[in-house]
Design brief:
About 65% of the residues lie in helices and about 10% in strands. The chain starts with a helix and ends with a helix. A hairpin with a 2-residue loop joins strand 1 and strand 2. A two-stranded antiparallel sheet has the order 1-2.
């Protein structure tokens, strides 16, 4: 059975996602962080207010126990700390430590440089069309 453009699109998208993440991980290796840990830091930095552990897990797309292990590691490195939520003793807010900020800036700088390289030769209209297609596919996924 020949591959359709829809098959190729899905395979290409998966390949691009893996390749992009692998290249970013390679470039960030010198910072001493695993992909999972730098991803948690980036998600955490994008919250306007410190999220609960559950909110952060949802944002990153991991299960609670997986995030707990990652936070244990980041906490032992002095990059995050957990703070009890007064209204709910079971919940914990996750806060970035001051020492995490320069590291996050380095991650962002490296990620932005890679993004510029990867989008070389892609004009704004092509990007807008691609984003519209992705948004439509994501909406269809949500209906499933």
């Amino acid at each position: 059975m020949p591959l359709t453009d829809q098959h190729r699109f899905g395979m290409q998208l998966a390949h691009m996602s893996r390749g992009w993440r692998a290249e970013l991980d390679r470039r960030l290796a010198g910072l001493g962080l695993s992909q999972a840990r730098w991803l948690v830091l980036l998600h955490l930095a994008r919250f306007a207010e410190s999220p609960t552990q559950r909110e952060l897990a949802q944002s990153v797309g991991v299960e609670g126990p997986t995030l707990a292990r990652l936070l244990d590691s980041l906490e032992s490195q002095g990059l995050v700390r957990r703070q009890a939520v007064l209204e709910d003793r079971r919940a914990k807010k996750i806060l970035l430590s001051a020492s995490a900020r320069p590291l996050i800036e380095q991650i962002e700088t490296i990620a932005n440089a890679l993004r510029v390289e990867l989008f070389e030769g892609v004009d704004e209209e092509e990007l807008r069309i691609t984003m519209r297609v992705h948004a439509r596919i994501l909406a269809n996924l949500e209906k499933s």
